[in-house]
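Transcriptional regulator
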Amino acid sequence: MVMAGGDGAAGGEPGLGVTPRAREEWARHWRHAGLPGLDLLRARYVRHSFPRHAHEGYVVCAVTSGVEEVGLRQGTVRGGRGGIIMINPEVAHSARAGAPEGWTYATLYPSSGLVAGIAEEITGLRGTPGFDRTVAEDPHLGHLITEVHRAAEAGDALAADSLLRLLVARLLRRYGGPLPSRTPRSAGARTAARARTVLEERMAAPPSLERLAEELGTGPFALLRAFRDAYGMPPHTWLTDARVRRARRLLEAGSAPADAAVAVGFTDQPHLNRHFTRIVGVPPGAYRRERAAQPGGTQAADDGRLTPGARTYKTAEGTGS
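Structure:
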């Protein structure tokens, strides 16, 4: 367990020209064109909480103030200032503030391919690399995470990429190990995998739990238990997460939020806005604008002030796009 320290750590403010007010939430979720395979999030959350979800790639974050609570299948862990949080691909988790002041953090989302390439080059790990713990008190590596952000925000892709690879290499050496195989072995796991395939293929018009179980030759409660055991969440929660993932890809390809909402099966854009913002941390419109923006330069923040190279979404002022 890593407990909280004070405020004011590096990476604890949204950017030059933006000064957070008391209890204000802000976030920037973006990607640098010169850093393929990496998403970045820098944020402060107080009331916002992330529902149970999972990521296709890895999550590595440095908590720079306050306390973040991460809910996992095996229990809840807490990371405070000086702590780093590491989550492997497809691990279901939730997150929320663990202190009244919330938490501020700098997060990196390296893809599975990026981490695998680094592991193959510099470690002796066999199989798929992963982290053997979720929280560690490691201020030095936490500082390195914030330095990756600073270099990317300054438009220095060479420095950001170099620091990122150094960071991942050190993380794997200190906290790394091979991940267990995900090949379904039990009958329940195979049924859950088949259910997942059906939900992916019929995302816009999924069957009910009873109908899905009937199609797979099992009972609703048996399917519910098998799916939760396999993926850490029930089918309806997994489906919401999967819809948001697909919406992200559509937004990155240039789709409007309203079109993405319909394509993935949400009833309307406000429905997408609500679930997207809860899971990703920013609304779909802000997410899409960041993907369309050119790296570097100065853009207007959502409140009209200027942030070098950033559009900072202020969650306390609403969740619209």
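The longest helix spans residues 157-175.
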